[in-house]
Amino acid sequence: MIPIAGMGASVGLTLSTATRERQMALIETGAMQSREIEAFRSRIDDIQTVDQLIADPEVYRFVMKAHDLEDQIFGKAMIRKILQSDDSEPGALINRMTDPRFEALYDGLGFTEGGTVNENTKDPAWIEGLVDRYVEQAFINDAAAQNEAVGQALTFRRDAASVRSWYDVLGNPALSRVLRGALGIPEAVAGIDLDRQVEMFAGKMDLSDLKDPREVESILRRYTALTDAKSGAAAASSAAVQLMAGAQASASGNWTPRLLDISAIDVSVLSGASAYRR
């Protein structure tokens, strides 16, 4: 993967965005990921119930990773109860979960009849959609491991359009943190009453803006710029910018900028080099 550790958030996000497709292609063909993808593709159509999913460790792990729930893999009893829930019942476990990842898992898998029926697992389009989600989540996780602000920005870009209420925003750490940063809301606000937080967000922007890709990108530009300003990663002095925009002295003593064409980056070369830079 392309190393972005130590870069400012603005530069890191720009580089990650420009190389996203090539990085995801590398992930999909990686040794571990390709084995997990093949295991999922070859066995998912045999799974019709929640019990069958839990009983297949490789497919179960794949599904959990795709929904960014790798930290919950060992909570099989809870996952079983969630997936067997009936969301039409107000007291169902799925309706009591505050972590939006569980709702995404529940909705994405689509088990019905108490977890005994699934019409998705034989649908090729659904299968490939989950493979794409797995690869994209691996891409985001790698970015986040190197540069937390970039990982949050990528998650925001992916999840923003699915928001239905301000409470969805508050329940998603990446969404809420990016918006607090972009809108100038102090981090300490995260600890106050939820209704008051909703009032503060609603007073600064319309929720519908999150469904507008142009507004989402505008929010991300503000978030990364302000994050860099707070961390001291100013563009003029950023080590990342030194990498991306070098300078060469001419005979007259003037400096001529050299700009790096991001589209020309050979991702495979940078991926290999990253092992020596971390």
UniProtKB/TrEMBL annotation:
Top-rank taxon, per record:
Bacteria
- Tell me, what's a Pfam family for it? DUF1217
Name the InterPro entries on file. AGR-C-984p-like_sf (IPR023157), DUF1217 (IPR010626)
What's the protein here called?
Uncharacterized protein DUF1217
